[in-house]
Amino acid sequence: MSSPSHIPPGSPDDASRADVGIVCALPLEPAAFLKRCEHVRKYTGGRFVFRGGKLAHVRVAVVETGPGATLAARGARALIDAHHPGWIISAGFSGALQPTLKLGDIVVATGIHTADGRDLSLDLKYEPDPQRGIHSGRLLNCERIVRTVEEKRRLAESSGCLAVDMESFAVADACRATGHRFLAIRTISDDMSKDLPAEAIAIFSADGFKRWGVVAGSLWNRPGSASDLWQLREQAATAADSLAAFLPEIIQQLVPPVQPATT
């Protein structure tokens, strides 16, 4: 990946300014990454939750928007207005559309295709490393969770994309409108080995894994769902850990340290 131009950390007078902004849908998605940051602070703005901190020399701001394109676009604009980051990253969970992608693998997007036929190319060259579980290619954006393996196969055949999520195109579109540089980095939270349980649609909601009333209802109504839901939670945690391990690598390339001036 080439080293792009960047805003030197700490150069703006405004202490709220970030070098990198990250847009996530659910609290679990950035949780492991934020543990790697220092001096993390949390605040709310409107319906969104913001967290800011430092990753080495880089000032990072994260917004949790809730799932779906509309909230993602609004959250991205709120992040831009509040922190003026030099880069925006759409980061979070995705479903694999190719059998070669496994749980916890990373997809760095080279473009985004939507289910209604829109395309967005990203000016990005990133060398994939499949042995490390790092892939480079196009993402598909849908308006809902793609739950079954059969539907994933159909979408893969029609789109040629590697993975599917619900928010990346909306964040990219918001960045395009404001002239902000953009990346989409997704971690595989469900692969092509089996269908997601029906309860996944309720669990992957604005409250993430906090809707225990929904969970309790499913345990009462469907025997075996406890095992499915526990596995779903473990898969999500694995994916979040993988994202947390990869994001610092990318962020350090986006915002390299400022070298001291020589005399």
Helices and strands in order:
Blueprint: E1 20-24, H1 28-34, E2 38-45, E3 48-55, E4 58-64, H2 69-83, E5 87-96, E6 106-114, E7 119-121, E8 134-141, H3 149-159, E9 163-165, H4 168-178, E10 181-190, H5 200-203, H6 212-221, H7 225-254
Parallel strand pairs: 1-4, 1-5, 5-10, 6-8, 8-9
Antiparallel strand pairs: 2-3, 3-4, 5-9, 6-7, 6-10
Helix pairs in contact: 1-7, 2-4
Q: How many structural domains can be distinguished in the coordinates? A: 1
The count of DSSP E runs of length 2 or more, i.e. the number of strands, is 10
Distance between the termini: 31 Å
Fraction in beta strands: 25-35%
CATH superfamily: Nucleoside phosphorylase domain
Category by helix and strand content: alpha/beta
CATH architecture: 3-Layer(aba) Sandwich
Write down the overall geometry: globular
SSE topology string = EHEEEHEEEEHEHEHHH
**Mind telling me the C-alpha Rg?**
18 Å
Order the strands across the largest sheet as they lie in space.
Answer: 5-9-8-6-10
Explain what this protein looks like in three dimensions.
- It contains seven helices and ten strands.
- It is of the alpha/beta class.
- The protein has a single domain (20-197, 239-254), classed as 3-Layer(aba) Sandwich (Rossmann fold).
- Strands 5-9-8-6-10 form a five-stranded mixed β-barrel.
Short overview:
The protein is α/β, with parallel strands linked by helices and 263 residues long. The protein has seven helices and ten strands. It has a single domain, classed as Rossmann fold (3-Layer(aba) Sandwich), CATH 3.40.50.
Descriptive tags:
263 residues; alpha/beta; Rossmann fold; five-stranded mixed beta barrel; 7 helices; disordered N terminus
